[in-house]
UniProtKB/TrEMBL annotation:
<feature type="domain" description="AB hydrolase-1">
    <location>
        <begin position="69"/>
        <end position="317"/>
    </location>
</feature>
<dbReference type="InterPro" id="IPR050266">
    <property type="entry name" value="AB_hydrolase_sf"/>
</dbReference>
<dbReference type="InterPro" id="IPR029058">
    <property type="entry name" value="AB_hydrolase_fold"/>
</dbReference>
<feature type="signal peptide">
    <location>
        <begin position="1"/>
        <end position="20"/>
    </location>
</feature>
<dbReference type="Pfam" id="PF00561">
    <property type="entry name" value="Abhydrolase_1"/>
</dbReference>
<dbReference type="GO" id="GO:0016020">
    <property type="term" value="C:membrane"/>
</dbReference>
<dbReference type="InterPro" id="IPR000073">
    <property type="entry name" value="AB_hydrolase_1"/>
</dbReference>
<dbReference type="InterPro" id="IPR000639">
    <property type="entry name" value="Epox_hydrolase-like"/>
</dbReference>
<keyword id="KW-0732">Signal</keyword>
<dbReference type="GO" id="GO:0047372">
    <property type="term" value="F:monoacylglycerol lipase activity"/>
</dbReference>
<dbReference type="GO" id="GO:0046464">
    <property type="term" value="P:acylglycerol catabolic process"/>
</dbReference>
<protein>
    <submittedName>
        <fullName>Pimeloyl-ACP methyl ester carboxylesterase</fullName>
    </submittedName>
</protein>
């Protein structure tokens, strides 16, 4: 376990002028981007090759004894670093916090392999075994919610509780969004621009704030790297994973306590732009209804509805989300 580090150190050490930021290029594993907490690596194997999986392991102050572990699982268009406020909060409340970058994301290797939630869940279990953690609370946001669900289904004995924060996959995208081949998806990824990334991120929130710019700046800097074609290929693979591997039909099999946190302004549909009809697009991604429907399918679920909040409550409504999360963890 790593020592608890206060966030102001990060701000002092890593401030960079705006002009330099706009020209910076980040490689496939974000070698020059500093996370707020120390990053470690676990070697995992897939398809006969070995890859590095990055993770943060943050301990509470030593005054807290025998801390419970919380694992934070990131979304598709994000990385472990965007949990920094939640890590700081939970560690301050006495929890050990483990934050993996899944293979293909953040500081982890960009492997050109078949991506599956089963395999990512297995990597996550290997990480917990490596850290000698036998039980944890799994918290998943967006794509991380799909992964957390798969993990809980595969390893119920390891999953003390489950928190799903605006998870995607509450509907079967195969029935909604036209199919795209990996080649088509790759070509779409190659067309990405900084402006396009920013416009997409703006759909996550009810109103845009300068603080959100950080999560645009990182992927935009990767566009300028010679590694970007590899990043784009992996992004195509992970889109296909989400599209082809639904979890929506298995929520009734979750037996542990579940907190389903829903920002009611969220209208996320993976691949929404591929739906040609505007009227049809409006029918899907209706999180107020999807949240209630999903909570009804899970035997031991508590539904937290957040008014005026979009796709990322832990960033847009941080205090409100943290309060509800802490109450659930201490029940």
């Amino acid at each position: 376990m790593k020592n608890f580090i206060y966030p102001f150190i990060f701000l002092l050490l890593f401030q960079v002028p705006a002009e330099a930021q706009s020209q910076r290029a980040y490689d496939a594993t974000l070698s020059d981007y500093a996370y707020r907490y120390p990053v470690n690596y676990l070697e995992v194997e897939q398809e006969g090759q070995k890859y590095r999986m990055a993770y943060m392991d943050v301990s509470p102050p030593t005054s807290f004894k025998n801390p419970q572990t919380v694992v934070l699982l990131h979304g598709k268009n994000f990385l472990g670093a965007y949990w920094q406020q939640t890590v700081n909060f939970l560690a301050g409340q006495g929890f050990r916090v483990v934050v993996p970058d899944q293979l293909g994301f953040g500081k982890s290797d960009k492997a050109e392999v078949h991506y599956s939630f089963h395999q990512l869940a297995q990597h996550t279990r290997q990480l917990l075994d490596h850290l000698k953690i036998s039980e944890a609370v799994m918290v998943g946001h967006s794509m991380g919610g799909m992964l957390a669900t798969r993990f809980a289904l595969m390893y119920p004995e390891t999953t003390a509780k489950l928190v799903l924060e605006n998870p995607i996959g509450l509907e079967d995208y195969r029935r909604i969004v036209p199919y795209k081949s990996l080649d088509e998806l790759y070509q779409e990824e190659l067309k990405r621009t900084e402006a396009g990334i920013r416009d997409y991120h703006k759909t996550y929130y009810t109103s845009w704030k300068p603080a959100y710019e950080e999560w645009v700046r990182i992927p935009a800097a990767q566009l300028r790297s010679p590694d970007y074609p590899l990043v784009a290929r992996v992004a195509a693979h992970t889109y296909a994973m989400i599209y082809e591997q639904p979890v929506v039909y298995e929520f009734s099999e979750l037996k542990m306590p579940v907190l389903l946190a829903i920002g009611l302004e969220d209208r996320t549909v993976v691949g929404k732009a591929y739906i040609k009809s505007e009227e049809e697009r409006k029918q899907y991604g209706q999180y107020p209804q999807l949240g209630q429907q999903t909570a009804g399918a899970i035997p031991n679920a508590r539904l937290l509805e957040l008014n005026g909040v979009g796709h990322i409550p832990h960033i847009e409504a941080t205090d409100q989300f943290h309060k509800a999360l802490l109450e659930f963890l201490k029940q």
